[in-house]
Amino acid sequence: MSNSIDPSLFSAHEQALNHQPCPKCGGALQLRRAKLGPFLGCEHYPQCDYIKPLHHNDGHIVKPLGVACPECQHELVLRQGRYGMFIGCSNYPICHHIESPTANTPKKNHTSHLVCPECRQGHLIERQSRFGKAFYACDAFPKCKFAVNQPPLAGQCQVCGFQLLVEKKFASGTKHLCANRKCAHVQSAD
After folding, report:
1. In the list 52, 62, 96, 181, which could disulfide-bond 40, CB 3.0-4.6 Å?
2. Is the pTM of the predicted complex or chain greater than 0.70?
3. pLDDT single digits (tens) 60-89
4. Considering only CA atoms, which of 114, 79, 84 is closest in space to residue 97?
5. Are 133 and 179 found together in one domain?
6. Mean pLDDT, the chain, as a whole number?
7. Residues in domain DNA topoisomerase type IA zn finger (predicted)?
8. How far, in Å, CA of 83 to CA of 33, rounded?
9. Sign, CA torsion 138/142/148/149
10. How many CB atoms lie within 10 A of CB 28?
11. Are 78 and 101 in contact (CB under 8 A)?
């Protein structure tokens, strides 16, 4: 079996592209291949650097929502993208309207009275990862990048003196751990 790609797979693209001129210089567009996938490139490269990807990573459509786009009146669709689910216009790339799927739901106030132990200026707040899992991070982000995965508790580590503990559930019961990753001392929840 040959390891080369069958050129007949690309012949439909090549025949469809023979009549498209380069929008920058008017030269012919040629099908090129790179490690990120096939693309159209100008025949006058490197003088003309026009490229057009043939494979778009715009997110695939999960389901149409039946609601009109506020910008162009086309239908909004739920898409799965690189950073999770989002609502976008079905008329993309002409219309670039996007919104969060949780934009209409009221946000709960998950601020904490706990001061960030790293920067001592921000407070720890509950946030969600792109997969929907809760974590707790400093509200001074991006200046402070402190974050923990378990619910934070006020307290001090008995070993290293770090000013924050996290609550973790084990089969033997709930324990308090030092939030300092270098220490991670386990204390009883007493």
Report:
1. 52
2. no
3. 777 888 889 999 999 988 888 777 788 888
4. 79
5. yes
6. 80
7. 21-56, 67-101, 116-151
8. 26
9. positive
10. 14
11. yes
Shared domain check, 49 and 78: no
CA atoms within 13 A on the CB side of 11: 4
Taking the C-alpha atoms of residue 29 and residue 152, their distance in angstroms, rounded to an integer, is 57
Task: Please give the residue range of the domain that contains residue 43.
Answer: 13-53
H helices of the chain, where?
11-17
Residue 168 belongs to some domain of the structure: yes
Provide the residue type at 105 as one letter. T
Q: What confidence tens digit (pLDDT) does each residue in 143-159 have?
A: 888 899 889 988 888 88
Q: How far apart are CA 91 and CA 98, in angstroms?
A: 11
What is the spatial distance between Cα 162 and Cα 133, in angstroms, rounded to a whole number?
A: 25
Is 24 a member of any domain?
A: yes
Res 106 pLDDT > 50: no
Strands (E), 43-122: 51-53, 60-68, 75-81, 84-89, 98-99, 111-115
